[in-house]
């Protein structure tokens, strides 16, 4: 026996002849029989991986720092990294200096280092929630005691984990710290001349100072000393960290033991004490560690030193990220 459905929706049995369709026919027609045991739908597992993925999508949708959000959710003390497209600044304040300052300031610290030669003041960037901090080697070089103050005024003692004098970088770790807000490390390869930037640090011991400017040049060859005793000049009044640039020396003699690195140049105002602090893009991600700035002294300045200086340099953050494993392993170069 063969059965068929007409396009009009009428059902016809060829052995019984035409029949009138019901007034309200069901479509599609009900099955001829119900299965004895209907399979139960499989339950979807919502484990930690699914939850993290969901949170990451939400974080991206609202413009938050996805990498930082995942770090906080999992509780891992890994460095939060991102491309320059990631933003940690609230959507309503994106692209503003005030927005960047509010988002990043809790991740910037003041560093006071003491040694037999004297004391120095610098800045640092928190990169993990349990207190890993990146700074310049010259800020903590030769220090017998390191004190770190966070943006909320809390003080910690810190120990040196690793140093790299050839890149003027150091990694220190706070003692008994947890729950700190880690900065998000950006991608300095995407930085362009003319990009707006914000600098945060502790110039002359004025913690949490915010300045702004632009990237004025890329890949500048900056030469700085690697000798430990030179680092103590950082805390002296009217003197900045000595460096060479363009065949000239600034802020004193760099000495015989020097190293040269490629730097980002900025006109954001930097002063002694900004060393080791953050250079930040307008998305709130760290693109550099401030390391050298021209700081003319009043008594020694000539007429050629008059006017706005606007000459500061930062170690690209990609250089920092490439050096982290070495620093964490306890390097003492």
Automatic annotation (TrEMBL):
Extract the ranges annotated as region (Disordered): 1-45, 223-258
Among Pfam families, the record links this protein to: Trypsin_2
Q: What is this protein called?
A: Trypsin-like peptidase domain-containing protein
* Highest taxon, organism lineage: Bacteria
Q: Which family does it belong to?
A: Belongs to the peptidase S1C family.
Q: Does the keyword Hydrolase apply?
A: yes
Ranges that cross the membrane: 49-70
The cross-references to PANTHER family, in alphabetical order and at most eight, read:
PEPTIDASE S12, PROTEASE DO-LIKE 8, CHLOROPLASTIC
